[in-house]
């Protein structure tokens, strides 16, 4: 009975780890601000379907999602969606390019804008993977590492999700197996 409980908890936690997306706080501790270099912040990130962008900002700012032409020209009058509550979560539900600007056009012109490319979260099949060329090498300056640090694995699951799934697994084991 003890083994059934441990296996159930391991399965539930493994499922939770693979199903949750990463929450990215835009600009990290600097937040969504004119002084934050969001281009540098986003360069080493791989955004996937299921991830969430968290914009944290002061009352002097807002965040608006715009089209690519409006992003390039900092057009803040024709937006897809906007928020000014200081704490905006944007779920990345579909693959493709997303564009965000500060609602203050001068701030956008000053660099307060973000472009993210959202990748499909499904891994490509081995048949579609490119083949290595003999004697091939990385382009000069290629040092990007797509492997997340070990601490990033825990970030894929919120503490509340982890607790919920653990309790759910325990309840299921008690109901199904009579384990107390």
Automatic annotation (TrEMBL):
InterPro entries: Cupredoxin, Phytocyanin-like, Phytocyanin_dom. Residues 22-120 form the Phytocyanin domain. Residues 1-21 form the signal peptide. Residues 124-137 have a biased composition (Low complexity). Residues 120-149 are annotated as: Disordered. It holds the Pfam family Cu_bind_like. Residues 140-149 have a biased composition (Polar residues). Keywords: Signal. The keyword Signal applies. This is Stellacyanin-like. The lineage of its organism: Eukaryota, Viridiplantae, Streptophyta, Embryophyta, Tracheophyta.
């Amino acid at each position: 009975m003890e083994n059934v409980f441990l296996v159930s908890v391991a399965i539930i936690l493994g499922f939770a780890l693979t199903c949750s997306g990463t929450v990215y706080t835009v600009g990290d501790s600097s937040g969504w601000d004119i002084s934050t270099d969001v281009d540098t912040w986003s360069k080493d990130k791989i955004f996937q379907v299921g991830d969430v962008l968290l914009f944290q900002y002061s009352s002097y700012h807002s965040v608006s999602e715009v089209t690519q032409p409006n992003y390039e020209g900092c057009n803040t009058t024709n937006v897809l969606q906007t928020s000014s509550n200081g704490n905006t979560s944007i779920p990345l539900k579909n693959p493709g390019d997303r564009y965000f600007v500060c609602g203050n056009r001068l701030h956008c012109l000053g660099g307060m804008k973000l472009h993210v490319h959202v990748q499909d979260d499904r891994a490509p099949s081995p048949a579609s993977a490119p083949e290595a060329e003999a004697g091939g090498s990385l382009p000069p300056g290629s040092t990007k590492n797509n492997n997340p640090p070990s601490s990033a694995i825990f970030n894929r699951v919120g503490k509340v999700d982890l607790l919920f799934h653990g309790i759910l697994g325990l309840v299921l084991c008690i109901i199904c197996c009579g384990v107390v």
